[in-house]
Amino acid sequence: KVAIKGIERELICPACKELFTHPLILPCQHNVCHKCVKEILFAFEDSLADGGSESSNQSSPRIKISSSSMDRIDRISRSGTKRNSLTPRSTLFPCPGCQRDIDLGERGINGLFRNFTLETIVERYRQAARAAVAIMCDFCKPPPQESTKSCMDCSASYCNECFKIHHPWGTVKAQHEYVGPTTNFRPKILMCPEHEMERVNMYCEICRRPVCHLCKLGGCHANHRVTTMSTAYKTLKERLSKDIEYLISKESQVKAHITQLDLLLKETECNSERAKQEAFQSFEKLFHVLEEKKSAALRAIEASKNLRLEKLQTQAEEYQGLLENNGLVGYAQEVLKETDPSCFVQTAKQLHVRIQKATESLKSFRPAAETTFEDFVVDIRKQEEILGDLSFHSNGLEVPEINEEQSRMYNKALISWECPGKTDSADIYVLEYHKHNREEESATWQEIEVCSKSKVIPDLDDDSSYAFRVRGYKGSICSPWSREVILRTPPAPVFSFLFDDKCGYNSEHLLLNPGRTSVESRAGFPLLLGSERMQVGCYTTLNYIIGDTGIAKGKHFWAFHVEAYSYLVKVGVVSSNKIQKLFHNTHDVTSPRYEQDSGHDSGSEDASFDSLQPFTLVTLGMKKFFIPTTPAAPKDPASRILPLPSRLGICLDCDKGKVGFYDAGRMKCLYECEVDCSGIMYPAFALMGGAAVHLEEAVTAKYEEYHDDM
To answer: CATH topology for 401-488?
Structure first.
């Protein structure tokens, strides 16, 4: 048998760090005091109401919520877990035991079982700890006597005399169950928290909790696998007994591991001291270098100051001599008093030269030295950046890599990254970005902490390039920065629309998905029957579809994906006053040289083909992008055929009357032309044969980095 004093660690609540008081069993199978659960929920609801303010941390002096739990509370409150009034309310509870966010269901704390077994063990531990402290009778007149038994039905303790008085012979109370003195009173029958009048008689193997027959018939356990309580009791007791026996049989192995752990503790202490000493020496070297640089810089400034002061002082003395009766002027005045011409000429010649120099200096005054010390400003921006990155680097922590294929720049930026290996993954990532400008040598990085491997960044400037990099952190250890990736935003604000299922939509040849974000053209029997009567050439019409929203002014951008198997797709824009011509156009032919009614094969149609189009479209198909034939286009046909990008974009500038076709992955313009924007402009698409077009999905909050790990 295990001594009762050796199990204290198992009887401590992970929230308040004290012995359990009325413990509740959470769905994750951890136990928390009833009072602690309520206080944590109050703190959590306050955090939701206050938006994660610091006041939510001051809920109760009794509870000790860890900083990681509060970080999860703040993170969940920011991620928007509030539900509207039409959806069932689900209570999230940050478990202090497993650090997960547990869903308590609609009933919340009322749907949790009280752990009576754990209560009994805690009571036995308390009694062993206070063996000398007696439990007094609850009904004695003062002074109370020591109790000799406790009634489980009355939930009270009695001495012998009081027990006889309150449980007279021959009455119903005489049949009550009594035990030795205790303060732990538990019900004889465990009732279902969902259906308070029903006793639990089954065990749900999926949820690992007792249930009643109503829970199985029509409750949340209707489709779960359950077993009888006696079977569950027998099975779990056998498993627990076998596991305990196994652990006891491995006592020598456990002791050996304890000895090894003691050695590891001492080794960790020694290694940590050594690491501290090495870190101290490294920083001392930096301090020494900085002190030397500091002394040299201060000496240089002091020397320059002394030299400049000397020059300025000399210049000031010279100008002082130009005053009347002082210096040079006073001396000249005395020379003027000389009456002997020979003596005067002998002295005045040199004096006149000095007077002329003084006169010229007055006309163009310039200080002998500069007063500013701009040449002595120490630029430490690069050093600050390097010192900011100063941290412990670990070879075992993988360097994350930004996945350019999964990253997207659309209405918002979605940046995704991954680690090459699976070992020693980071606990948190730091994503940095800045606007990329080749003219600026250094830019200020904006920093974001991310808990997953992706992040949505809003409010980026249009038609701009941004540099991104990411690093991982595991405690105080960090990985080196990833390779910088340059991504470009769309050239204009993103325009949102759906495919129009009314205006000109041909439901026989085109198939829309329920959300109207994808359209598919199937080369079925209608095309086959239409081609059966053709003996020469090929004459087939395109199936057109437009967007359900028009553009009247401004500059807008939208993107889409064309399936690789698509035979022929045309994309572009159409004006509202030409939509009727769009759906009744007779020039949509795969071989325009042949027309049945003309009776001849002529190339004259080619010259006027583009001018007759009531809209602006480019042709895609067979994994190719075809630049239209224009005077500015390359004459070589092969140079007009480009590989089809995985994502295409269209930028319409109504103010300038231009439309551009882009590789939406790199935001590179492939072709641009003028377009008549006199009417309301609509996105237009045409499909023939087997083809499909999918509109680009806007980057929304569902791409955020937080994912529940339950």
So the answer is: Immunoglobulin-like (2.60.40)
pLDDT at position 644? 92
DSSP string, 452-497: SSEEEE--PPTT-EEEEEEEEEETTEEPPPPPPEEEE--SSPBPP-
pLDDT value of position 84: 38
Place of tokens 């690093």: 471
Q: What is the mean pLDDT of the chain?
A: 78
Contacts of 627 (CB under 8 A, 6+ apart): 618, 633, 634, 640, 641, 642, 670, 671
Segments in 515-646 forming alpha helices (H): 525-532, 579-583, 604-609
Rounded distance, CA 451 to CA 475, Å?
13
* Domain 1-46+89-132, CATH: 3.30.40.10
CA distance 519 to 692: 6
Distant-in-sequence, close-in-space partners of 64: CB < 8 Å, separation ≥ 6: 15, 16, 17
Where helices occur in 414-454 by DSSP H, the ranges are none
CATH code 1.10.3720.10 for 491-586+614-629+638-709: no
* Euclidean distance between CA atoms 692 and 509, whole angstroms: 12
Q: Quote the DSSP letter at residue 4.
A: G
Residues of the chain with CATH 2.60.40.10: 401-488
pLDDT mean over 678-696: 90
Question: Between residues 487 and 176, which one has the greater pLDDT?
Answer: 487
- The amino acid at 341: P
CB 545 within 8 A of CB 498: no
Its pTM stands at 0.48
